[in-house]
Write a structure and sequence with these properties.
Largest sheet: 7 strands, mixed
Oligomer: single chain
Bound molecules: pyridoxal-5'-phosphate
Shape: globular
Radius of gyration: 22 Å
Structural class: alpha/beta
């Protein structure tokens, strides 16, 4: 039951589901089994040699997890998807499949912290060369493309300043140089509700499904999405042999459940994000708001073009008065929760200078482009008036 013209809300519910013939279960059962029995050695032999379809062992495939993979592929408009036990599992499995010693990767310098660590320390340890650039500037990409370049890696919107990169312009430039270079896009912040990088010309999408795709703050999970041949390679080499980071069937069940309300949740995250951004922009104690839906944002025009249904629920803003006031503000919040992660029902707030980047000196922060008063907010699903009232009372107390 699936066709390409169905809306994303319908596909989030129905795509990938094979109706249960055994007991007529409405929901996809959790096949919490590590292994699957064969009727005979001959059958086992045919499964291992690939002559016959069927399950073998959950690191190689599982009915609950595969159902979720078909659904996420449908949401991204892709041929296939591979589920992983975390977003970092997805990113490392994809990059270890693409790269090898002597090859070169171009990556944006504004990245999720652990992705930056993988690219700046992890992969170079195995002989992969990585050049960091600003992918919002096409000339910087162009100047660094080389014969041994195998991937260009980016996030848009990027963490924490919500910088926007033009996916289709980057894909055109990179593929014009060499069509085999893979443009890899982390679509965690936008999700396929807002932006479909593969349709814009990217080759591979990676996700932390811990965030909006699951949406309920109770799972760590990830996906690699792309062409069927590439996803088979990621599963049979990257995941099966290198990282081993398969998603558990129970986590797959939770993400399947979370996705049933995907469209409803994303609409609300976007509405709340916009309302909060507008409130903060007009507040005298706020120096600057970073939200791609505000006309003053550097990437607004590109965001309007490539994020088709809104601008998301992530808002960053700079409190006047640096680190001290940033901390005072966050500590004064009552409804909003102080926590990392994002995309949950609860509004989550973090202050990089005193939390995730607490080991940075003032100079380090400046170099990383993180103002000391910067606060990152993930707009939850509460009523916007209540979130804004909380932000307002906390601002009054600094
Ligand atoms: C959280 C996050 C990741 C890492 O995902 P995990 O599920 O925590 O492993 C990668 N990229 C982005 C943009 C993220 O927000």
């Amino acid at each position: 039951m699936e066709n390409k013209n169905m809306g994303i809300g319908t596909r989030a519910i129905h795509a990938g589901i094979i109706k249960d013939k055994q007991y007529g279960s409405l929901t996809m059962p959790v096949y919490q089994s590590s292994t699957f029995y064969f009727k005979s050695c001959e059958e086992g032999g045919r499964r291992f040699s690939g002559q016959e379809d069927g399950y073998i062992y959950t690191r190689l495939g599982n009915p609950t997890t595969n159902t979720l993979e078909r659904k996420v592929a449908s949401l991204e408009g892709a041929e296939a998807a591979a589920a992983t036990s975390s977003g970092m599992g997805a990113i490392s499995s994809a990059l270890w499949t693409i790269a090898s010693a002597g090859k070169h990767i171009i990556a944006d310098s504004t990245l999720y912290g652990c992705t930056f660590a993988l690219l700046s320390h992890g992969l170079p340890k195995y002989g992969v060369e990585v050049t960091f650039v600003n992918t919002s500037n096409l000339d910087e990409i162009k100047a660094n493309l080389k014969e041994n370049t195998v991937a260009v890696y980016l996030e848009t919107p990027a963490n924490p300043n919500l910088k926007i990169a033009d996916i289709s312009a980057i894909a055109q430039l990179v593929h014009g140089y060499n069509k085999d270079i893979k443009v890899v896009c982390d679509n965690t912040f936008a999700t396929p509700y807002l932006q479909k990088p593969l349709q814009l010309g990217a080759d591979v999408v990676v996700h932390s499904a811990t965030k909006y795709l699951n949406g309920h703050g109770d799972v760590i999970a990830g996906f690699v999405v792309g062409k069927a041949d590439f996803i088979t390679e990621v599963k049979m080499s990257g995941i099966k042999d290198m990282t081993g980071c398969v998603m558990s069937p129970h986590d797959a069940f939770l993400v399947l459940r979370g996705l049933k309300t995907f469209e409803l949740r994303m609409k609300r995250h976007c509405e709340n994000g916009m309302a909060i951004a507008k409130f903060l922009e007009a507040h005298p104690k706020v120096e600057k708001v970073y939200y791609p839906g505000l006309e003053g944002h550097k990437g607004y025009e590109i965001a309007k073009k490539q994020m088709t249904a809104g601008f998301g629920g992530m808002v960053s803003f700079e409190i006047k008065g640096g680190k001290e006031n940033g901390m005072k503000f966050v500590n004064a919040l009552e409804l909003c929760t102080i926590a990392v992660s994002l995309g949950d029902a609860e509004t989550l707030v973090e202050h990089p200078a005193s939390m995730t980047h607490s080991t940075y000196t003032a100079e380090d922060l400046k170099e990383a482009g993180i103002p000391e008063g910067l606060v990152r907010l993930s707009a939850g699903l509460e009523n916007a008036e209540d979130i804004i009232a909380d932000l307002s009372q906390a601002l009054d107390r600094i």
